[in-house]
Specification:
Elements lengths: L3 E2 H11 L3 E4 L2 E7 L5 E8 L5 E2 L1 H11 L4 H8 L5 H11 L5 H12 L2
Antiparallel strand pairs: 1-5, 2-3, 3-4
Helix pairs in contact: 2-3
Length: about 110
């Protein structure tokens, strides 16, 4: 697998994926599809730049609904477009699945 830097991951999530970043103890990212429907979320520890190691990259891939860590790496490295990522995420974890609903409730309760 590969490793990613937290700052480049933040940039890809907020820029390319148009994720909303919530500033809590950690940074929480909420990803919406083109219709504005919440479809996925993940988080990064905030603070100094850090290297996200293999395990964390894999966890983040699963959290947002990508099939593999390599797909997440490709997303961050701009080898996977937003449209391709959204298609994978919505196929792998359609909006309204229990995990998506639970994350929505959890994040809303912290506002």
């Amino acid at each position: 697998m590969g490793r990613l830097e937290s700052d480049e991951t933040d940039k890809a999530l907020r820029g390319k994926m148009k994720a909303e970043r919530l500033d809590r103890a950690d940074w929480y990212y909420k990803i919406y599809n083109e219709q504005g429907v919440f479809i996925a979320s993940t988080s990064i520890s905030k603070g100094a730049k850090e290297t996200l190691r293999d395990r964390r990259v894999g966890e983040m891939a699963r959290q947002i609904g990508l099939r593999t860590a390599q797909e997440f790496i490709d997303l961050v490295k701009y080898r996977l477009s937003r449209e391709e990522a959204l298609e994978i995420i919505q196929t792998h974890r359609p909006p309204g699945t229990p995990k998506t609903v639970n994350l929505t409730s959890l994040l809303a309760s912290h506002l």
